[in-house]
Design brief:
Layout lengths: L28 H15 L5 E8 L7 H19 L3 E13 L2 E12 L2 H21 L2 E4 L2 E4 L2 E4 L7 H9 L7 E2 H7 L12 H17 L5 E3 L3 E4 L4
Antiparallel strand pairs: 1-3, 2-3, 4-5, 5-6, 7-9, 8-9
Helix pairs in contact: 1-2, 1-3, 4-6
Length: 233
Amino acid sequence: MKGQDKSKKIESVSTSVKPSILHDVVSNRDDHLTKLASSILEKLKGNDHFELEIGPQVDDVAMEDYKYVENISFEFLESVQSEGLITKLGNTVKTELRNSSVWNVVYVVFDVVNTQKFKNFLLEYISEKDLDKKMSFISYAGGILTIKNDKVKILSQSESNSDRLLSLIFTDKTKYWHKDEILEEWGYLAEDSVPKQLIYQAGLDVNRKVQAQTGIQYFLNVTMKKVSINRDF
């Protein structure tokens, strides 16, 4: 390993040991970066200078998961620096005693430009990633709405507006869909005569079916003017 002291034996990293305060071996990029943002947020209490532990320094190809964590952490913080929220981004390696072994540990270092703006950025980032993860558990295809492990039958031979509504909404699950936009997507013209509650009733029908089959009371937020997936379903 780099910086090895000949008087000390630097132990090779074992996957059974987790020296980092973060997830040092991860399979999901967004999960790790959300934890990284949360870890920074916990320590963001007026601190202008940060030294945040990332994990062990790795030269062994077999331990490339550790290097992956280091790389994506720096990529994330480089994007934050490009926003002007932090400066002097770099890293340092410290030799430390861990579990009766000597480790080379990587720390990311940076200065915070504006604590409140950085805090707001991190909170928004965490919120967006949590929403993305939640939305990944739902899908709609072939008249069947899937919510985690539940399957809800939406389409029947006598009605299709509920199916049309969900098919459109699921092209952008986080969007707030306005009535006029939905009608336009359905092929209606401005001068067409359309039942006033056409979309509203379609949304209520979806909610009734979801509640009956899953217990979720309001899967959709439905008003006379717009429809969206309830972020707190």
